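Support reply, case 0932

Customer input (verbatim):
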Amino acid sequence: MSNVNKILVIGAGIAGPAACYWLRRFGFSPVLVERSASLRKGGHALDVRGVAIDLVKRMGIYQKIYNMRTQLEFGRHVDPEGNTLHEEKGERFGFREGQDVEIIRSDLVEILIDSIEGVPLQFNQTIESVKQTDAVVEVQFKDGRTEHFDLVIGADGLHSTTRRIVFDKHEYKLNDLGAYFSVFSIPNYLNLNNTEVQCEANQKLLSITSDKNRKMAEVAFSFRGQNVLNNVRDESEQRRVLRDTFQDFGWEAPRILELMSDSDDFYSDSFTQVIMKSWTKGRVALLGDAAYSASPISGQGNNLALVGAYVLAGELKQAGGNYKRAFDRYNEILRPFIEANQKLGVLVNESFLVRDEVSKEVAEERSNNIMEQVKIASNMIVLQDYANPH
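Our regenerated output:
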């Protein structure tokens, strides 16, 4: 590669390791850094679907993902008194069909990390500053080290430090969809068996799922509200707001909130999209949620990350390391796919957390509509075969 080889990738979630995989495969030398002390365990379940299925097959990891997939058999809607309103088969309940698979986030990250064995990975590492010249990017790390890279890829999520340091505030917009979500694990005291149960009322939703580990259940809360948190990253405040919001919700909420105190994998964030005219600036590119979050409720975040990583690395290969040309192509090729999936995120956000009671008819109509739109959005790009150009 003429003028690009050493590439810093920031963030060991989905996008970062996927980028490292393709960069290395295409002849570059990536270095991966992660702000956490270790890989985050647990997390919500993610769907791998649409064109991303073809990608993980090309990476040789589809079978691993399939083997570690969740295996829900039933999905059930109940009212706040616990009465069943509607039931569906598990795959349809999660808007999946064909070869689509659902997998716990940490399991997917683990598979991706295993696929890049040998790529340098530094935990507990963040960047303090980024200085660009025509020839190089100078990065200062929090431990005081300064290092030079040919390119920097920020794959550090919705609250991206890379985006904040490199891009001016007018170059991106955080589109708050007006809702929050929290996930954590509790003992499976309801004895659920490959089942997810959802209760939705008054713009709030609570779900409990138990899958392969019958002893444990994953809980997900979501609710409408804006600016309810003074500090969106403060876990103690997140837990307090959750208790205040759901204390009178009914169904299993009181018991679950009680069990939340002992949970050690609590995670919470807002339903927010990142809107940018360009995901690149100089020798820096943003990837995944840092660049184009469609919001967690879209169910497409990891698929955008997987596709974006492939296109970015592939265009760098195609351009022979001419990063300006590659970055222009990255912005151009990916744009329609991202915009379609961000529209999907808005649609799903408007379809859930409704004011009225969710009847069987409402649940069925919503399911059919979202299923159709997910299928369209997740296939809204034709991927070039960068590994075997014709």
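We compared this against your earlier run and they match. Two observations from our side: The first helix runs from residue 15 to 25. Residues 127 and 141 are 4 Å apart (CA to CA). Please reopen the case if you see a mismatch on your end.
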